[in-house]
Specification:
The protein is an alpha/beta fold. Helix content is about 40%, strand content about 25%. Helix 11 runs parallel beside helix 12 and helix 15 runs parallel beside helix 20. The chain binds 5-amino-5-deoxy-1-O-phosphono-D-mannitol. The site of 5-amino-5-deoxy-1-O-phosphono-D-mannitol (M6R) has 16 residues, from helix 10 and helix 17.
Length: about 600
C-alpha cells in the first residue's frame, strides 16, 4: 500500500533526513519504489526516485543531502505501472514547476492519461500518481488557482486516493483526501501531512484527521481546511495524540490482525473500483473463456478462496473450474494438463514455494498462468501472463484475513462479469455490507468467547457455498488458538465424525440462506446427542429455534452471504486466541511466507 508524506517549514533547510525518517515509518505498509522531492526558495525542484528499498535508494541517490522549505516523500506499492524508476513517485507536471504524489488508486487512469496526451501535456509514466498531477495542471493551465484546480481535479479522478502537491514559487503544499487515509500534523514552524499517523508522531502530537472531500493547505505557521464542493473553509478539529508509536502503527488496534479485519470494507471497495476500470479483467476473462480446462491453484487460505471461486464461476458464469491444492496439482493433474488449459494461481505473497512448484509444472506443459496476488513484484506477478492485484496493502499478521476476502471478491467479480451479470450492486453495496457485518457480529461473537475458550476440539461445518468458508473458519481457529478444529462438509459429519459428539461438544455451522433446511438437519444430529450447535447464518426462525446460538448475518443473496460469513469466524478466532493467552499476529511455528517445500 503506498504512503505519502509532505512537509512545509518556515525556512530553507536540510529536509532529506526528515523525509527519509518519515519513509521508514511508512515502510511497514509495503512498497517497491521510493522517491523524494524538495522545493527550494529559488523556485527549483529537486526530484530523486527509484525502485528499491528506502535505505538503499536514499543512500544511492543521496536523499540525505536534499534541502528546501517544502518536501514530499512517496513510497509506492505498484498497481498502475511496473515498479520502475519512471513510475516511481513523486511526479512533475509538464513544465516541471509542480510536483506531487499520491496513494491509492485512480481507476480511470488510462482514460485520463490519454486525454492529457491529446491535450499536449508531457506524460512520462504509466502511473496514476502522475495522473493526479496532470489533472491539477489541466485547470492551472486554464487560469485556476491551485486550490480551485485541485477541487476540479477531484471530480475528474475516480477511485480512492489521497495526494499532496506543491508548486514552485509558492510557500504552501496542498493535500486532498478521497477514500484513502490522510492525517495532518501541526508543529512549531512546520506543518506536515501523511497517509498515516506513525510518520507524524516523531515530529508532533498535534494532528488533524482530514475527511473525504476536504483539501488541506499546509503552511509553515498552520493549516486551512476547505470543502471540495465550494472551496469554503472548514474549522479543523485539532487532537493531541497520546498513544504510543507501536499502537499508532496498528492504527489504534491492539493487534495487526484486528486492524486488518477492520480494513476489509476499505480494501474491498478499493479492489472493486480497480477491477471496474481494469483492462486486465477483460484479458483474464478472455483467457478463462477460451480455455479447455480451468484450474484454481493455491495453498491454505488461498486454496479456500479457490474453492469458493470455483462455485462462483459455475453458478454465475456456467464455467466449471477445478480448485486444487498447489502441491497436489502435479500428482493429480500434471500428466493430463495441456497447452489449451489455464490456471489461476492464487497467493497473498506470490512467493509460496508450493505454488511456484505447481507453476513450473504448468509451464512445462505449456499451460496458461494467470495470477491473483497481493504482493506486486513477487514471483507470481513475474510469471503470470495476466494478474489481478488484490490491493490489500501489506498484510502483517500471519493469519490471512483481508487478502482472503479480496481473493473471494475478485472471484465473485470475475464470475459476475463472465456471466454477463451487472456488477453495479456489488460495487455499490459490498463495502458497506462488510462494515455492517463486522459491526453487528462483533458483540455476538464476544458473547461466545467464554463458552468456547476452553474447548480444545471442535468442528466447523458448511454446505455448498459455505463449505469453503467452514474450512477457512476452521483453519483460522487452528492457526491462532492451537485448538483442533476440523472443517468439513456438513453432510459428511454423520459419516463418521458424529461419534465424537457428547455432552456440550461444540459444533459450528455456517449456513447460507439457500441451505437452511439441510443445516437444520445437521444441527439436530448434533444437538440430539448433547452437542452444542453454534450457527453463523441469516436471521431465520428455523435456525433460531434449532441452534443453541445464532450469529446473524445481513439478509443477502447466497453468494454475498458466504463471503460475509467469514467475518464473524475471523473475529471469533481472534478473540479465542486472546482468551487462550496467545498472540494472534505471530502464531508459533508459522511464517507469513512459506518459501520452502
Ligand atoms: O501467500 P499465500 O497466500 O500463498 O500463502 C498460503 C498459505 O500459507 C496461507 O494462506 C496460510 O494458510 C495463512 N497463514 C492462513 O491464515
Amino acid at each position: 500500500m503506498c504512503g505519502i508524506f509532505g512537509i512545509v517549514t518556515d525556512k530553507e533547510q536540510p529536509l532529506g533526513p526528515i523525509l527519509i525518517e518519515a519513509g521508514r515509518w511508512l515502510s511497514y505498509r509495503g512498497y517497491d519504489t521510493v522517491g523524494c522531492a524538495t522545493l527550494k526558495n529559488d523556485g527549483s525542484i529537486d526530484l530523486r526516485k527509484d525502485a528499491g528499498k528506502i535505505d538503499q535508494v536514499s543512500e544511492r541517490l543521496r536523499f540525505g543531502e536534499m534541502s528546501g522549505s517544502r518536501g514530499i516523500l512517496q513510497l509506492r506499492w505498484a498497481t498502475f505501472g511496473s515498479p520502475s524508476q519512471v513510475n516511481a513517485q513523486p511526479h512533475l507536471d509538464s513544465d516541471g514547476d509542480m510536483v506531487g504524489a499520491h496513494n491509492g488508486n485512480v481507476v480511470n487512469n488510462l482514460e485520463l492519461r490519454q486525454q492529457f496526451i491529446t491535450e499536449g501535456m508531457t506524460v512520462r509514466s504509466t502511473n496514476d500518481g502522475e495522473t493526479c498531477v496532470h489533472a491539477v495542471e489541466r485547470y492551472v493551465d486554464r487560469g485556476a488557482s491551485l486550490l480551485d484546480a485541485i477541487r476540479n481535479a477531484y471530480h475528474d479522478l475516480e477511485g480512492d486516493y489521497a495526494f499532496v502537491i506543491g508548486r514552485s514559487g509558492e510557500q504552501e503544499l496542498y493535500a486532498i483526501k478521497k477514500g484513502s487515509g490522510l492525517v495532518v500534523g501541526i508543529g512549531e514552524g512546520f506543518t506536515c501531512a501523511s497517509s498515516d499517523l506513525p510518520s507524524i508522531l516523531p515530529l508532533t502530537r498535534r494532528v488533524v484527521r482530514v475527511q473525504d472531500g476536504q483539501i488541506v493547505v499546509l503552511r509553515s505557521d498552520g493549516i486551512t481546511l476547505h470543502r471540495v464542493e465550494d472551496g469554503l473553509p472548514v474549522v479543523p478539529r485539532v487532537e493531541t495524540i497520546t498513544e504510543t508509536m507501536e499502537s499508532a502503527k496498528k492504527g489504534g488496534f491492539p493487534h495487526f490482525m484486528l486492524k486488518e479485519i477492520h480494513e476489509q470494507p476499505g480494501v474491498a471497495g478499493e479492489l472493486l473500483h480497480l477491477l471496474e476500470g481494469s483492462p486486465d479483467v477483460d484479458r483474464m476473462i478472455e483467457r478463462i473463456a477460451s480455455a479447455r480446462l480451468l484450474y484454481l491453484v493455491g495453498c491454505g487460505t488461498s486454496y479456500h478462496a479457490c474453492m469458493l471461486g470455483a462455485i462462483y464461476l459455475a453458478r454465475l458464469a456456467g464455467r466449471p473450474a477445478f480448485p486444487i491444492l498447489a502441491p497436489q496439482f502435479s500428482a493429480q493433474y500434471g500428466p493430463a494438463v495441456s497447452p489449451e488449459d489455464v490456471g489461476i494461481f492464487v497467493s497473498q505473497s506470490g512467493e509460496t514455494k508450493d505454488v511456484i512448484n505447481a507453476i513450473h509444472v504448468a509451464q512445462d506443459r505449456g499451460m496458461g498462468v494467470l495470477g491473483l496476488v497481493n504482493v506486486i513484484g513477487s514471483a507470481l506477478t513475474q510469471v503470470s501472463e495476466v494478474y489481478l492485484p488484490l490491493v490489500c496493502g501489506y498484510e502483517i499478521s500471519v493469519p490471512a484475513t483481508k487478502t482472503f476476502l479480496n481473493q473471494v471478491v475478485a472471484f465473485l467479480y470475475l464470475a459476475l462479469r463472465m456471466g454477463k451479470h451487472s456488477t453495479k450492486s456489488l460495487v455499490e453495496t459490498l463495502p458497506r455490507l462488510i462494515q455492517h457485518t463486522l459491526e453487528i457480529t462483533a458483540p455476538q461473537v464476544q458473547a461466545l468467547e467464554e463458552l468456547l475458550a476452553d474447548h480444545d476440539d471442535l468442528y466447523c461445518l458448511g454446505y455448498g457455498l459455505t463449505y469453503p468458508i467452514a474450512l477457512e473458519g476452521a483453519l483460522k481457529l487452528k492457526e491462532i488458538t492451537y485448538a483442533h478444529c476440523e472443517g468439513m462438509l456438513s453432510t459428511e459429519f454423520k459419516h463418521g465424525p458424529l461419534s465424537a459428539v457428547d455432552e456440550g461438544y461444540p459444533v459450528l455451522f455456517v449456513a447460507g440462506p439457500q441451505d437452511v433446511p439441510l443445516i437444520v438437519s445437521g444441527i439436530n444430529e448434533v444437538t440430539c446427542r448433547g452437542g452444542r450447535a453454534i450457527v453463523v447464518g441469516p436471521e431465520d426462525s428455523r435456525l433460531r429455534i434449532n441452534a443453541h446460538h445464532l450469529i446473524t448475518l445481513p439478509a443477502v443473496d447466497g453468494e454475498t452471504s458466504a463471503l460475509l460469513s467469514v467475518l464473524p469466524l475471523q473475529l471469533l478466532s481472534y478473540h479465542l486466541s486472546l482468551a487462550r493467552g496467545y498472540d494472534p499476529d505471530f502464531p508459533r511455528n508459522l511464517s507469513k511466507t512459506l518459501t520452502v517445500d
